Structures are given as structure tokens and as C-alpha cells.
Amino acid sequence: MVILKWVVAFSILCNFLATPTLSISSILNKEELANISVNFLNLAKRPELFDWIVRIRRTIHENPELGFEEFETSKLIRNELDKMGIFYKYPVAVTGVVGFIGTGKPPFVALRADMDALAMQEEVDWEHKSKIRGKMHACGHDAHVAMLLGAAKILQEQRDDLQGTVLLVFQPAEEGGGGAKKMLESGILDNVDAIFGLHISPMSPIGTVAASSGPIMAGSGFFEAVIKGKGGHAAIPQHTIDPILAASNIVVSLQHLVSRETDPLDSQVVTVAKFKGGGAFNVIPDSVTIGGTFRAFSKESFAQLKQRIVEVITRQAAVQRCNATVDFDTKNRPFYPVTVNNKALHEQFRNVAGQMLGINKIIEMKPTMGTEDFSFFAEAIPGYFYLLGMVDETKGRFESGHSPFYRVNEDVLPYGVALHASLATTYLLEHQLKSTTRDQNVHDEL
User: Fold this and answer.
1) What are φ and ψ of residue 303, in 5° steps?
2) Is 50 exposed, middle or buried (0-12, 13-18, 19+ CB in 10 A)?
3) What mean pLDDT do residues 180-207 have?
């Protein structure tokens, strides 16, 4: 318990100090703050803990499961939490697990890891290659789960010193299924004050993090449209109503939504990535199906794009004498909000990561048109999402996520463990005083 020995003194001070807005920085000096982060990193690098985390990650990697099918992954998580004596709730959003460490009282801070794999064949030949044909952990979620379990082990060792409650959120279906949305709908995170999430990155060196305040990833949605005409022989097109021609005009017109209707300073994307129609060289089909994605950095821009996509598709089809229907299928593919990092949490993150890694190891994260369903959490709860670098040039090239050649540099695992534990611990310390003055509407899980 030496890592948090000063917490007892902090609790005593809380009983005598009347100012509810007191910040941790006014109680703990920089050296004490640094000790938290550095000590957690030292604990995470212990050989026995590192080996255990690696085994967990490799076991999950060998047995990948798709969104809302993570039953064995969930079972592994629950077994490990049982061994640690950590209380949890299951099932949450079909296969999700939420564990609890600490007092069971406010403040509540959550740490999130996604569990699902991708529907693709692994092409990396190694001892722990996926055993399930057509499924692969090609985005690092196996490492995310292992790191959160590692953080759970360290935090459980310090549970008597925690000044609140840490929620361990093992989330299903990040890859398009909106698992975060379903976890929120379950109500289990209703009283959470803040949530942190991470993603390992093949773009930056090991020992670095990439992060920034404000919008960091776009909101996104998918659309599919069926354009119906009248099929016939390609030699007599005058007797047909050609849906391929109509669909081609639609694809070109959709590109004008960004190039001619959008402020160049307001980043937006409309991409048609699916075009299916016809099966013969000399037959005009009855219908064509197109589909794609649209993305924006504000709710207003996103709503405008959605409206204009419907208008362009249906009206351009009508010009070519076709009928068109547009389906956004939000039940199976929910719209993802913009991922926005909370400003106050950004300052905390910089303090923690700076003390642990060095302030020069924090890279400014540039906004991207990619999406993350952590955005559902960050829309409902103050949230913070960051990238954890894992590149080591001595270990060869690391491919980007969703590649069949994707690899994880397992040396990154202790950094994720330590950042999880440090962020949760320092958040609870900073907000313990505030929680004692608010309405005591608390969880009863513990």
C-alpha cells in the first residue's frame, strides 16, 4: 500500500477543509503527483504482472469474437475478476461486464476497454494466431482488455486507499454495433462522473501518447439506397429505364455536397463505397444498390448532410425516371456522435501522462474523420480518449488497424495499465471533496 500512503493524510485533511472546490494540486505537490504515476508504471512493469497480462492478451487473440458474440471473452474477464475478488455486473448490453473497485460511493470514475474482433482472416503467422477462421483481433481490442484487467489487479491491491469507486467497463461491439450506446441505455453508468478510454496506436513511438482537448473524431453514419428502374437488353436501351446510369449520376452528385455546399473550414465527408447492380455484360438490371458513409464534426452539419443525401438520391433518381429509397438502418448501425474530449480531463491527463512519461512525450492529436463509439460515452458523461503509441523500429513495421497483418507490440501493455490506474486514482482524489457536498444519489452495487 506504500504507493498511496499519502491518501490517508488527504482524507484527514478533507475532514478539516470546508472548501468544496479544492483541487488536488493545492494539496499534493508535483513530486507527490509524479510519485503516483511513476509508482504505478513500476508496478505495471513487474515481470510477473507483465507476463500475466501478455498471457491474457494472447488467449483473447487466439479466440476472437465479433460484436455481441463475445461470450468466451466475457467469461475470461469474469473469471479473472472473480480471482481478484472484484464485484461485477453481467450481462450488460448482451456480453458486457462492469466491475467495481473502491468504496461503492461517489465519486465514480470509469475506465473502458472494448472486446470485439473483426470479421477478417489473420495473415500474421505466429504462435498465437487466431484459431477462428475469418475472425481476427485486428484493432488491438485484445490488448485493451488485457490492459484494463492489469489495471484492475493494481487498483484492487490499493482498494482500501481509493477515495471513491472505479468502474471497469468491458464493452462489446465497438466495431459498428454501438455497444457503448447499449451500455448507456442499461443505466449502469448513470452516476459516473467521468470516463477514460484508450486505443493503442501504430502511428507513434512506444512511450508516447497522442491526445488533445475538444473534438477529436467525427460523427458518422451509414446509408444504403436502392435505385429501381426497368431492366432489359443492353442493345435496346430505349426500352429500359437504366438504374446504373441513374446511380452513376447520384454518386457524382453526392460529391457536390461537400465540394459545393459545405464551408471548406467545416470538415465533412460523403463516400459511396458500395455499388452493386447487374450480372451480365448485355443486360440492363432492374435495380442498383449503392451505399456509403457520411461524417461531420458537428450535429448541425451531420443533420444537414443526412437530409441532403436523401434529397439528392431520390431527386436525381427521378430525373432519370427511376424510383429510389434510402435506408440509414440506425437500429443495426446507429449514428456515432462526434468524439469530444473534456477540457478539464485534458488538463488532468496532461499532468498524469507528463509526470509518467515526460511532457515531451505527449503528442498533439490532430482531429480525424475516423469514428469511435467511445463518443456515446463522452456525449453523456465527461470523457477523455487518447492514443497510446506502440511503435518500435527494431521490431519491424506495425500495420494500421483493420489490416490482416496487424500486430501488437506487447511492450506497450504496462503503459496502458499504469495510465488507467493513475488517471482513475488521481481523478478520485481530486473530486472526493466535491462528491461529499452533492446529492448522495449513489450506486448500491457494492
Assistant:
1) -65, -40
2) middle
3) 97
Q: Phi/psi at 115 (nearest 5 deg)?
A: -115, -20
Please give the torsion angle defined by the CA atoms of residues 145, 381, 221 and 346, in that order, rounded to the nearest 10 degrees: -80
Nearest CA to 213 out of 354, 353, 364 is that of 364
Single-letter amino acid, residue 267 = S
Q: Are 179 and 68 in contact (CB under 8 A)?
A: yes
Mean pLDDT of the chain: 91
Whether pLDDT at 34 is above 80: no
Cα 446 from Cα 443, distance rounded (Å): 8
Nearest to 4, CA basis, from 40, 46, 48, 29: 40
- Give the list of residues 6+ apart from residue 353 with CB closer than 8 angstroms, or none: 37, 209, 211, 361, 362, 386, 419
Residue 443 has pLDDT above 50, yes or no: no
Q: Pick from 432, 402, 440: which is nearest to 165 by CA?
A: 432
Angle at 168 between CA 177 and CA 359, to 5 degrees: 100
